[in-house]
């Protein structure tokens, strides 16, 4: 007996949904069947907004954040401090930093980090654009908010060396114990960096 | 300072993804950002297949299974036994039954089950269509493959009473211990039904 299967269109849908991050085969089938059974226009709305995002959202040409305008919300806000540029690997890291509420400057997303194993070199990142921005906008400080893993460190070191000749201070995020983390949960590298970066409470 | 947010199109996408079954707010944001960052046409492909399924897939007018043709794969297969019709609540339950490989007949999806609390009565289900099918196709057996919960039982009882006058046998799925389940995991109702439905091993 021939094995019964869903029509090809449904199988294609399950196949595409399965590739989304965090969606396994069972979730994909569940979502596809939900779409089949929903009587309203909700699945069409999902389809429409995916297309709309794809067509209307682009990277801000200055900082790399997401925008549908000529410049993003942050770059076009005159209240933001142009003296500080916070350098991140990905544009998706800008909102988490914004949510802290403590940074009033602007951003620059590199679009990745230097990683020879992944064939990503400095020329593949928006480093040239960062240098141009520094020359054009004359910020007083570049804050490197890069990951504390090997590739993040390598990228930070590369940038620090590169920017040495420019009249701008280069800082990086502090490394140490994460908030709420006891010493027993910290690995040796975190502990050694927390020790090396210790700050005075009373002098 | 004004709170920075993603452009409205991205927020709309996160909002839609969040409504999908099994997708929470964090997963929705993760998928949306993945779509933003993917450089290929994959998100557009997701959008396209959702639309295609919505436009091309419909319920088989005879049994309710999914199809893009006039009749579904099962109803149009002359090798399937027309003498048995297996009644299920939802079309999505047909493939799981098919995967058992033990049923060679055809199906009839009711589109739900009788549930006064949800304002679903017999007239909201494809019960009239089932009666018409029985008159037209003259099957010898109707197998009620409905849930063993209160609504499934109520629906099964309603159908058994309704079909009493028609020249067709009405059976239901066996109730008892699930495969691989020890007695210590079975609830009292399952045990009492397993006892009541005990079968002879030697007579």
Structure description:
2 copies of one chain form a homodimer. With 203 residues, chain A is of the alpha/beta class. Chain A has 2 domains: 8-56, Helicase, Ruva Protein, domain 3; 60-200, Dna Topoisomerase Vi A Subunit, Chain: A, domain 2 (3-Layer(aba) Sandwich). Chain A has 7 helices and 6 strands, in the order αααβββαβαβαβα. Chain A has helices spanning 8-18, 25-37, 42-56, 94-100, 127-137, 150-162, 188-196, and strands spanning 58-59, 66-67, 84-88, 106-109, 141-144, 169-172. In chain A, helix 1 packs across helix 2. Chain A is extended, with a radius of gyration of 23 Å. The termini of chain A are far apart. The model of chain A has no long low-confidence stretch (mean pLDDT 90). The interface between A and B is large, with 58 and 58 residues.
Architecture blueprint of SSEs:
The structure is a homodimer of 203-residue chains.
Chain A: H1 8-18, H2 25-37, H3 42-56, E1 58-59, E2 66-67, E3 84-88, H4 94-100, E4 106-109, H5 127-137, E5 141-144, H6 150-162, E6 169-172, H7 188-196
Parallel strand pairs in A: 3-4, 3-5, 5-6
Antiparallel strand pairs in A: 1-2
Helix pairs in contact in A: 1-2
Provide key terms for this protein.
homodimer, 203 residues, alpha/beta, Helicase, Ruva Protein, domain 3, Dna Topoisomerase Vi A Subunit, Chain: A, domain 2, four-stranded parallel β-sheet, two-stranded antiparallel sheet, 7 helices, 6 strands, extended
């Amino acid at each position: 007996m021939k094995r019964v299967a869903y029509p090809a269109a449904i199988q294609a849908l399950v196949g595409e949904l399965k590739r989304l991050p965090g969606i396994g085969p069972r979730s994909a089938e569940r979502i596809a069947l939900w779409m089949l059974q929903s009587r309203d226009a909700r699945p069409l709305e999902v389809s429409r907004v995916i297309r709309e995002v794809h067509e209307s959202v682009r990277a801000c040409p200055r900082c790399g954040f997401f925008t549908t305008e000529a410049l993003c919300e942050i770059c076009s806000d005159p209240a933001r401090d142009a003296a500080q540029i916070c350098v991140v690997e990905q544009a998706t890291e800008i909102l988490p930093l914004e949510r802290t509420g403590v940074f009033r400057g602007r951003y620059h997303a590199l679009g990745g980090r230097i990683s020879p194993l992944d064939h990503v070199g400095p020329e593949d990142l928006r480093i040239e654009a960062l240098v141009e921005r520094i020359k054009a906008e004359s910020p007083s400080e570049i804050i490197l908010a890069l990951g504390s893993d090997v590739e993040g460190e390598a990228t930070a070191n590369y940038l620090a060396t590169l920017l040495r000749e420019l009249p701008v201070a280069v800082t990086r995020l502090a490394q140490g114990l994460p908030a709420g983390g006891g010493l027993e949960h910290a690995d040796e590298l975190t502990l050694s960096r927390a020790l090396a970066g210790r700050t005075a409470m009373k002098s």
